Amino acid sequence: MAVTAPSTITAAPTAPDPNDRATFSSRAYALVSWLATFVSQVNSVASNVFSNASEAYAAGLSAAASAAAASASAGAALHNPATNYA
């Protein structure tokens, strides 16, 4: 079971400033365009997080079963090399 690193999320472009008429339109367009990519990237990261959490949960169940088996055998007699177990 391997942990998968999440993909990166692209940084947001400079936000549009309504007081800067010269750049407002181009920055607004860039921001709206980025949102589509952002949603896709967040969905990918969410899927990755869920997958890693599922793997961790399965590993925890396996560890609990191993601990129960070890606990059950803890009361077994110790091995004595002088004893013939045949």
Q: For the residues shown, what is the average pLDDT?
A: 89
Low-confidence stretches: none
Q: Which descriptor suits the 3D outline? A: rod-shaped
- What fraction of residues sit in β-strands? under 5%
Largest sheet: none
Keyword list:
86 residues
Structure, described:
The chain is rod-shaped and about 90 Å long. The longest helix has 53 residues, at 21-73. By secondary structure, it is an all-alpha fold. The protein has 1 helix and no strands. The chain has one helix at 21-73. The mean pLDDT is 89. 62% of the residues lie in helices and 0% in strands.
Topology, please?
Blueprint (H helix, E strand, L loop, with lengths): L20 H53 L13
Structure summarized in a few sentences:
The protein has 86 residues and is mainly α.
